[in-house]
Amino acid sequence: MAGVNKITRSVAPKTLLCDADKYVSAAVSYNQGDLLIFDVGTGLIDNPAAEVDGAKFVGVALQDVVAGKVRSPYTGTDVDAAQGLPALAGPQFGVVVKCISKTGDSWVVGQAAFLDPATGTRGVSSAGTKAIGIFQGKAVAAAAAGQEVEVLLGARYPTDTLIF
Fold it and tell me: Would 143 be classed as within a structural domain?
């Protein structure tokens, strides 16, 4: 399934990996809107597997990537071998993104947001150890399953310090 642009506001958009071609392989696939990390073991951009992966957070995906290549606009589901290779944009931070809240979490404006891969590739939680951003929406007493919340995303890679 193709991703959807979930960026609602650009505050101070930045990227740590401008040309992501060097940081993907045939083993890498993700959708636009996914929250991404830089896997220092493989040297590749990837989806997080656990909340602690927030230490390597680099931002939100701007394009769909299938097996290391930008998803084809012609076939709609895969990569077209005959298609020329477009530039691959690196993950972006410094933008407000609609993420999916962990069910039952409460949120208040200005609260830290943390990765929650168990909720999905856009999952965030109001509790954790490695903040990836700051909650921007109206207060939420208890998030419903699948509820979107707006988060100003920062980046933590390479120093494990949240930057915007």
Answer: yes
Domain enclosing residue 91, as ranges: 7-153
Q: Where are the alpha helices (DSSP H) in the chain?
A: none
Q: Please indicate, yes or no, if residue 91 is contained in any of the structural domains.
A: yes
Please report whether residue 80 resides in a domain. yes
Taking only the tens place, the pLDDT of each residue in 17-38 is 988 989 999 989 999 999 999 9
Single out the residue of 46, 65, 57 nearest to residue 151, CA to CA: 57
Instruction: Give the number of domains in the chain.
Output: 1
The 10s digit of each residue's pLDDT in 104-125 is: 999 999 999 999 999 999 999 9
For residue 164, tell me if it sits in a domain: no
Tokens of 13: 């958009």
pTM: 0.90
